[in-house]
Amino acid sequence: xxxVCVVGLGYIGLPTxxxxxxxxxxxxxCDTNERVVSMIRDGHAHFQEPDLQMxxxxxxxxxxxxxxxxxxxxxxxxxxxxxxxKDGKKPDLSYVDAATDSIGGVLKRxxxxxxxxxxxxxxxxxxxxxxxxxxxxxxxxxxxxxGGADVFVTHCPERILPGQMVxxxxxxxxxxxxxxxxxxxxxxxLYETFVSGRSFLTDCRTAEFVKLIENSYRDVNIAFAxxxxxxxxxxxxxxxxxIELANKHPRVNILQPxxxxxxxxxxxxxxxxxxxxxxxxxxxxxxxxxxxxKPHWVCERILKLADRFRDPVVACxxxxxxxxxxxxxxxPSIEIVQLLAQQKTLRVLVVEPNVTELPLAIxxxxxxFLVDAEAxxxxxxxxxxxxxxxxxxxxxxxxFLNKVVVDAIGIMS
Length: 413
Ligand code: SAJ
Known about the structure:
By secondary structure, the chain is of the alpha/beta class. It has two domains: 3-197, NAD(P)-binding Rossmann-like Domain (Rossmann fold); 239-407, 3-Layer(aba) Sandwich (Rossmann fold), CATH 3.40.50.720. It has helices at 13-22, 34-41, 52-61, 94-104, 123-134, 165-171, 181-191, 204-235, 239-246, 269-276, 282-306, 332-341, 360-363, 373-379, 390-393; strands at residues 3-7, 26-30, 65-68, 76-79, 85-86, 90-91, 112-115, 152-155, 174-178, 199-203, 313-317, 347-351, 368-370, 382-385, 404-407. It has an eight-stranded mixed β-sheet with strand order 3-2-1-4-7-8-9-10, sandwiched between helices. Bound molecules: ligand SAJ.
């Protein structure tokens, strides 16, 4: 068993730290956010995820997971910090740089540094160069060169799906892309202690690219479904039924149209591919644009219908970024609620069983209220289904017969 320092205790770092602790490693988790650190010290996860709390409670109770704000000496360092984009849809590596700098001082010979954050091509080499500059006393690996390094550096992109993270952490196949083969081998030793899926070894540039195209693939496929929903609306065809029937073909598997694409991954990562090859990544860019425009399209449809009413009340069912999670990051439905609420003549009711209060930005708008499904059903003129939570799927369809319904997710079909 090894000593592991996990830098970044967010959606990826925390489940990974708790999982490693459950497999007997001595884990120190670091986060710059003191509130997060103190919650974890008390054994509490700072977000909802099935089975995470159980894993965390056990890890903290037996003392195998400690949380603090600065990294400590360890055999393995796992960096799991955000990689958002900045102006011009360019990757923002400032969190990775800061995490890299934070471990420079505690690195020693024989250590392995693993970058799990989704990263643009070249980020692992950049990280290695940064460490090398900070620690001239250690020899760092050179891309695809054999032997001689004191420290190993590898990119092992996370692949877990929010809502199924703990299970997928164990069962998913992993891509392990080292600066050198020795780097991959060293990272593999750690992943083998908790991954039951297969591990595929490659170089770091390929691993970076593989992660980006996984999410681009999904984005492009969702964009296809979203584009169909626009075309079907114009042609007066039920898109859900059309997709269902097309999917009866053995080689067709069209995804579901929705309110747009949210979350911190799929709406971001394809831009890293576009940034790397802007003249070539045409389909990927257009897919992003199609998905980004979907919330506006949904909003326009609602507003057109609202014109029919004197003091229109619109109920939005769902504001998380996808069904059955409490995560509001980059949520297309929040964008829709905000666009609607900008029309001061509208009253917007939000039904969201996964949150207890609305985000401040929405609350401050003054005409948006969190209510239960019953109140929304009673008071709304227009009902917009934006997220397919299980609670909404159980609702009696007949209860909406006297409402104008905008169904962005096909829940009524
Ligand atoms: N969505 C649709 N229609 C669909 C499927 C999804 O509109 O048919 C929407 C969702 O409502 C949501 C968005 O797309 O707004 C993304 O949801 P998702 O469930 O497809 O993916 P994420 O963002 O929760 O997680 C993805 C996963 N990547 C892939 O499936 C290729 C996950 O495995 C990655 O670990 C994660 O991104 C990440 O962190 O990169």
